[in-house]
Each structure stands twice: as structure tokens, then as C-alpha cells.
Amino acid sequence: MISIDLQGKTALVTGASQGIGAQVARTLHRAGAAVAINHPGVGNTANDAEALAGELNRLRPQSALVLAADVAKPAEVQSMMQEIQRQWGGLDYLINNAAIIRDRTIAKMDLEQWDAVMAVNLSGVFYCCKYALEIMRDHGSIVSFGSIAALQGFFGQANYAAAKAGVQAMMRVLSREAARRGIRANAVAPGVIDTSMAATIPESVRAEMLKQVPLGRFGTTQEVAEVILFLCSPLSSYMSGQTLEINGGWRG
Question: What pLDDT digit, counting tens, does each position of 175-184 carry?
Fold first, then answer.
């Protein structure tokens, strides 16, 4: 029997208060890791993060903590990493999940919509990687979220697609730079996953998207989380600089 045991390891999942990020936190925790749950402190994210940490700590006391930080603000990211260092002595896994969308055509997109998406989805990943490397133990793993949008060029997503393509390229660079410490860097590129965000897609659009998926269904958050678990585990010890597509076979 092959099992994945992350006992004694620590993980940070950004944007982990809900959706895919929350499921990734649960999955890494179930494998034995202590998990830091990041949220940006807007809307219900703080309450959702606290509820998730409570859920995990009831299963295993003192195995989850909540960290508020806007990943688009480097000083907040640095403080978050310093808090992980103070509480846990270091970090083994960084999961860059935090992202926002501000969809609009290029002609109608205002500069704030462009800048906001780039700040969170691209610069935020850079800040998290930069400051995580200061506290990350050797032989760790960094997994960042790209997207099928980086390949498909969906209408109205110039900012999102460009940022996600940048993330995927950044992981290829980081895989070279961090290799001397045995730290691996990979990306995942999910297709349409059943989340509250996906539920906002008009039904007619969802139906057309579904026609592009050979498996005939959208993915689940657990299916994405299990790929993340694989990329953190020793089972992927010779994988770095890769982008794994999780899209049911969608090729456009």
C-alpha cells in the first residue's frame, strides 16, 4: 500500500478560506501536515478561515492557524512568513492559490481592473515565493495556480490569462533557482471546477464549456487538492518546473 505521510511538515495555503484553497488545506492536513490558512481580510474571508481552522484543530489540536494578509502587499506577506517562522520554525510547502477576477474586454477594461488582477494573481505569487524562500526548509515544494485560461485565451480575461501564464512561467524559472536547495516549484492549471465562483457563470456558457470536456463533467475541488498533495509528496520528487493541467481533457 502506498500512502502519503506529511506528519511533521508545515504548509501555507493562500486564499484558503473557501473553495479550492480550503479543500487543499483540508487535504494536506488529512495527510498529517500543519496548515496555515491565509485570507485577505475582506468580506466573510476572516470568518470562513477561522471556521476552517476550528474544524482542523478539532481533528488535531494546534495543527492549523489563521493568517490575515493581502498577498498584493509585500510587507504583509513578509510579516505572514515571519509569523510562520515564529510559530512553526519554518515552512515546507507553499501553495499559491489566492486569486481574483475582474473580467472585461480589453477595450472596456479600466486600468484598475488590470492592475488589481496583476497585483494579486501575479505579483502576489512573486511576493509569496520571495519571502517564503527565506523561511522554507530545504527539499520543500512550491505549487502555484495557473489556469486553463492561460492556454485558451477566454473572452474578457486578458488580465487573468496574462497573470496565470506569468505564474506558470515564473515556476519554470523558480524551479531552476531553487534547485540547489532541493526545493521544487510546479504549477497546476485547473479547468472549470465546481466552486461558488464557477456557479456564477451563466448556464448557457457553462453548457458550451462542458462540450469541450471529453470526460463530460466539471472537476471537483477534491480532485484539484489531490494533485496538490501529489506535488507536495515524495511521489513527485523528480518533478519540477512543470504545469499539470487538471481539466478533464479540454484542449479547446
Answer: 999 999 999 9
